[in-house]
Write a structure and sequence with these properties.
The protein is an alpha/beta fold. Among the domains are: 189 residues, 3-Layer(aba) Sandwich (Rossmann fold), CATH 3.40.50; 195 residues, 3-Layer(aba) Sandwich (Rossmann fold). The chain is 31% helix and 17% strand. Strands 1-9-8-5-4-2-3 form a 7-stranded mixed beta sheet. A 6-stranded mixed beta sheet has the order 17-18-19-15-20-21, sandwiched between helices. The longest helix has 17 residues.
């Protein structure tokens, strides 16, 4: 019985009956019970959920299978859960159905289900595989079960399980695109291994590891159902028939499959199948059964010809040179866009009555971090927020940028719904999306704004990709222009940022913050922790950059000299409240509040 039959709806009760009442025929002739019925039901439920939401990773509950390591317990559990005596089962391992693992798995499956084994792909109703999608066409009655070694495609770029889940929920796959960018910058090719990431149904990222890139086009709009399962992690995801499966690739650097012109199978003569090299240097078809059919003259060559991924054959003319660095042409920097204000207003950013209270812990009273803070900033203007540690200035910055939620008051930006929408009414995902091209931040600690494990160019690519850029060469040129502008040598464009000095990291972070020409820029203690000479250089750079762009800038600092160097107006905060406001030079020359007088005296000493 196929999984489609198992999932068939029953209408006698007006809805879909419980899956537990629709199970394959149970063995009653003494065949071994490798999976109990509860485990099978769990796998079927997860499989049906995966079919309903293509590419979505679904967890399931089951005990570990009593099989040898390397057998692929995930694929085995799926096959045993959806199969029955009427199925014809084909098991292949690395393209061969006569390998040790394939033979043992087939014996176990056939002995448990009472099904019939077959080596013919076209005859099989279930094909369980680990490394290959069969070369031959699989019909609508067939189900391909892939046992995969990695259930989470984002694991290669994101170690946090929570962050992986969040990125899937928000379709935030910028980090995977950056991973591809880094590969191209360092090697000149999109990827050389198996398991290239794909987007399923235009929504969920999936890594069909470890199948080769040659097989990935076979998943797109296929006639058969594909189920991918990881036994140890107990995760299932599926690609239903006639579903879009597109490999991730840049617009100007296409995805490529493994193909070398002129290479032929030494046994059957095929030149358009996936081949592996032997110890003697010859090449043979990876799919043994296909090779045997070609030699016997019974292979359906016409149907196979339609499956050959010719449009993904390597094109050397469209490849990039490894570690290629773009030359910056004088005067090539694009003009920054004009600042956007709310209709009938002069401000790009307006904060009114902002308040943030942290609840007390273990009997302590609550902490008022900010109370009734109000100000506005016009395009091309820089506002300073100054105060000692604990004054609430950093809290205000975090609330504006969205690092802190659950605040009261209102924050409005002219570029968002013409200033009508209160950003505090938006959820976390919406607030994060604003940081792709509306708002940016430069943190005191560059590690908060940069990925120290990737290159300087890759960090800027991260911001551009999140904003929708998909041209590798355009991203490359933009990164080079920005790094050149912040005086980072282009010879270090592809060096890992973790190897940079503190001042160099801060310059890269500034370049990243300006990459998408935001309307609002927040600077949080941008020079704290830097040597005096390095800090002076960063201040000079920031001053020049702010003069070039019509940004609404908020500078948060405890150092009045930084506020004096960068801002036009300033507010002074103490214990979460604004105690004085005015033009920066007036505050510095004639402070009225005693607290402001202390800050000015400290700056002058």
């Amino acid at each position: 019985m196929s999984i489609i039959e198992t999932a068939a709806p029953a209408h006698d009760d007006g809805g879909l009956q419980l899956l537990t009442s629709l199970v394959p025929e149970q063995p009653n002739d003494g065949r071994p019970v490798v999976m109990d019925e509860q485990a099978k039901r769990e796998v079927r439920r997860a499989t049906l959920s995966g079919i309903c939401i293509p590419g979505y990773i679904v967890p399931f509950g089951s005990r570990e299978m009593p099989v040898a390591r390397g057998w692929g317990s995930g694929g085995l559990q799926v096959t045993l859960a959806i199969g029955g005596p009427s199925d014809r089962v084909k098991v292949i391992d690395q393209g061969d159905e006569e390998g040790v693992n394939a033979v043992n798995l087939r014996r176990l499956i056939v002995g448990t289900l009472g099904s019939r084994p077959t080596a013919d792909t076209e005859e099989a109703t279930i094909v369980q595989s680990r490394h290959r999608v069969p070369e031959e066409w699989m019909g609508a009655d067939a189900t391909l079960v892939l046992q995969v070694p990695q259930s989470e495609p984002l694991r290669v770029v994101e170690k946090s399980v929570y962050e992986c889940k969040r990125r899937h929920a928000e379709a935030d796959y910028a980090k995977m695109w950056v991973h591809l960018y880094e590969r191209l910058a360092l090697t000149g090719v999109m990827g050389s291994g198996a398991g290239h990431p794909v987007l399923v149904h235009g929504r969920y990222l999936m890594a069909p590891s470890p199948i080769p890139r040659w097989d990935i086009p076979r998943l797109h709009q296929s006639d058969h159902l594909t189920i991918l399962s990881h036994g140890r992690d107990k995760k299932i995801y599926a690609v239903p028939p006639y579903t879009d499966v597109e490999p991730l690739s840049f617009e100007d650097v296409p995805f490529e499959v493994e193909y070398t012109p002129g290479v032929r199978c030494s046994k059957c003569g095929s030149d358009e199948s996936f081949m592996v090299e032997t110890k003697t240097g010859d090449w043979i078809c990876s799919d043994v059964q296909w090779c045997l059919k070609v030699r016997a003259g019974v292979a359906d060559l016409e149907r196979h010809d339609r499956l050959v991924p010719r449009r993904y054959y390597p094109d050397p003319s469209r490849r990039v040179r490894a570690r290629e660095r773009m030359a910056v042409v004088p005067g090539s920097r694009p003009a920054a866009p004009a600042g956007i204000t709310a209709p009938g207003a002069e401000w790009s950013l307006k904060v009114e009555g902002l308040g943030k209270v942290y609840p007390g812990r273990r009997g302590s009273s609550e902490v008022v971090a900010a109370s009734d803070v109000s100000f506005d900033v016009a395009p091309g203007e820089a506002l300073g927020v100054i105060g000692e540690s604990g004054s609430g200035k950093s809290t205000v910055m975090k609330v504006i940028i969205g690092d802190e939620l659950d605040a009261v008051g209102s924050i409005r930006v002219g570029a968002v719904d013409s200033g009508r929408t209160n950003l505090l009414s938006l959820g976390g995902p919406e607030r994060r999306r604003l940081r792709t091209n509306i708002m940016s931040v430069v943190y005191q600690d560059p590690a908060l704004g940069l990925d120290l494990g990737i290159s300087a160019g890759g960090n800027i690519a991260d911001a551009l990709i999140a904003a929708g850029w998909r041209s590798y060469h355009q991203i490359r040129r933009r990164a080079a222009e920005l790094l050149d502008r912040v005086e980072v040598p282009l010879s270090r464009m592809d060096d890992v940022v973790g190897q940079f000095s503190g001042g160099m990291r801060q310059r890269v972070q500034i370049a990243k913050a300006l990459a998408t020409d935001p309307q609002v820029l927040l600077l949080d203690e941008p020079t704290t922790g830097l040597d005096a000479s390095v800090a002076a250089g960063v201040l000079d750079l920031l001053g020049e950059l702010l003069e070039e762009r019509e940004l609404a800038v908020v500078v948060v600092s405890h150092d009045f000299s930084v506020i004096d160097a960068l801002t036009d107006r300033a507010i002074v905060m103490k214990e979460g409240r604004v105690v004085e406001a005015g033009l920066t030079d007036q505050l510095f020359a004639d402070p009225h509040h005693p607290y402001t007088q202390q800050l000015v005296a400290a700056a002058r000493s």
